[in-house]
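2 proteins. here.
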Amino acid sequence: MNPLRKTFFAATLALSLLAPAHARDATQWTSTWIASPQATWGADFVLPNNAPDRIGDQTIRQVARLSVGGERVRIALSNAYGREPVTIGAARIARSLGGSRIDAGSDRALTFGGRSSVTLLSGAPVLSDPVDLSAPALAEVAVSLYLPQDTALRSFHWEGLRDAYLAQGDRSAQAALDGAATIPSRPYLSGIYVESARRARSVVAFGDSITDGAASTPNRNRRWPDALAERLAPRGIAVLNAGISGAQVLNDGMGVNALARFERDVLAQRPDSVVVLMGINDIGWPGSTFEPAREAMTAQRLIDGYRQLIARARQAGVRIVGATLTPFEDALPDAPVKHYFNPDKERVRQQVNAWIRSSGEFDAVADFDARLRDPAHPTRMRAAFDSGDRLHPGDAGYRAMADSLDEAVLFGAH
């Protein structure tokens, strides 16, 4: 097993032990926000890394919108792909006032086993101690991390769609990070949990860039899981976004494949249900600029991958909803990625969607293809829903996807 895979599986096992387990803990901890960790990549990849190569004697402040709320919070940090330990010299959480500003009266120091600093071992996650902080549903919080030592950044989430603020020195307690640089990725922060009086229901959105929210308006919470959270949070239902741009069901790319990360990013969150929207990159990447030499994907291989996810979800008692793959004719016309679409790939998408709709193997179906496609040209996305790149929806398209999901699909009839 290569070193990257070793660190990934170590992190998966550790997180499954650290994540709040309702059956073992009388306190009800609910995962209210997540960002799936990825390994950084080099300058030879077609897309930029969107993160500094190294961080040292610097503070990172990241803003996240919770789904459900609580009166106590704790965070998870991940060094899943690090090749060396990472020292966090200070960590704090506060309610966000927008940009890099925080509500100073809500600012709380975070500890780890009672200590203000913590070392993230290579391949491992860390869970903070709980701290009192009133955080209502859909509240925005800011997490500030100070890294005192020069450290190679190896674990992050690429498509943050939210400015993170990088400032020199330990400025973790400052009310605003004036003059800080901004980066669009999320280093190290992988989860936020809230304590609640009773167990909250939750759903994980498990997908690729369309779930990660690519081409939605940055800093505005316009991804489809965000829109779904706005509807469900008042009912006490958490929505967790486990999207990774470039993700695939069967192959590693801008993250490890779905079968490899399903335990960490879905089952370890103890959800009631998961919506799987993934497979378009399995179809589109082979023969493209991303993977010019890879063998073309077949519908049967993708279906076999879905069946593994279904089996593992059922074994864990998690309802699994299959989402149809959305139209992508002539995708990415202005991007450096070429040959993402061709008629043979479209035939595979249609075969996969026919199986998702008719097989009955998923517990329910979210027909995102039917919701987004152009009735006059069904291999393309409707113009009103298209971001302009013919692959990713825009804000209106993401909202339409969320609006097409109801609680009967997500949780079954009650």
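next one coming up
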Amino acid sequence: MTDMSGNEYYDCLAGAGTLALGHNHPQVIAAIEDALDADRPLHTLDISTPAKERFVDSLFESLPDEFSDQAKIQFCSPAGTDAVEAALKLVKTATGNRSVLAFQGGYHGMTNGALSLMGDTDAKESIPGLMSDVHHLPFPYDYRCPFGVGGTEGHRIASDYVENLLTDGESGVTDPAGMILEPVQGEGGTIPAPDGWLQEIRRITRKHDIPLILDEIQAGLGRTGELYAFEHADIVPDVLTLSKAIGGGLPLAAVVYDENLDVWEPGTHAGTFRGNQLAMVAGEVTIDYILEHDLDDHATEVGSRLRDHLETTAEQFDAVGEVRGRGLMQGVEFVNSAADWQGAGPHAPDGEFAEAVQAACFDRGLIIELGGRDSATARFLPPLVVSEGQVDDIAAIFHEAVAAVAGTDTDPAEVAV
């Protein structure tokens, strides 16, 4: 990416993962130009068009047959948070229940219902009247295991906790309308859910007839090394929320769900921009390109290369607490061993250090995002077309930035300035 002053950057934020093929991919641009040249309508609400039909066909082709063969699709207004709102309404309508199970560390958007599901309490404290009846469950976060053990034992306890909550008549939790989770928590700090835990959660929700909503708004469409992150665990959801990459860089959101939940009346949920034709054109090309070029496999390969580089950096600097992620969704958590930390985990998250590293990266031509506890995790979401050579450059810049911040005697916040 080139800025207004002519400075060039590697963009490892990429629209929060929206730009799966990078900025202005020629095939995406050509498809948009062709649609404009053909004088097609730009906005059609629910009217079927060739562009919409092709998009749905491509999207369903990218999904496992076990899911897509009995799935319906609901187009929403354009943001991922709109898909989450639609999913909540869907499962509440289908079950007649109102409580929802969510997870600590989760992020599902900034509208009222989606914000209520968020794990970050700071983001919610100033908002009055958030949706009630949301129960936040422990997420298996090995580095800061809520049960203090981590690993297989940690996620076994986590799933046992959920099952006990659902069977205990004194748990205080009424029959839930659904459970929502991210197979890889993004804004929460790039935390992948263990495959075994996801399999247990799927078993538990099926046993108790609780619709399982998987939020793949950021992780979906090849980013984690599978077309969808839930495929790592060989499960399928009842409801899948999608946005970001499916629009090819343009605003588009959708909910794909099991037909058994399709009990709401036509028009129960709508959104003005649900018929965004240019987004469907761009999305179709993006999905087809990812499938044709096996970019999910590419994400595994170059993601492993990036991970190796980041692990090398971690070995050299005590400020790095953990490197984690899947495919081209990687995170580096920074810690401060001298700071007080009352939670689980060996050291306090160091948001100041992370912010300084982010600034040092920017000065050197690399754009990264921060997330997680205390915004202490550097997050990498490069386009899926990133090459091995570019990954090497990205990792070298990051390493240099960490070294620059770690080697200074000044306050990290001063380096960030």
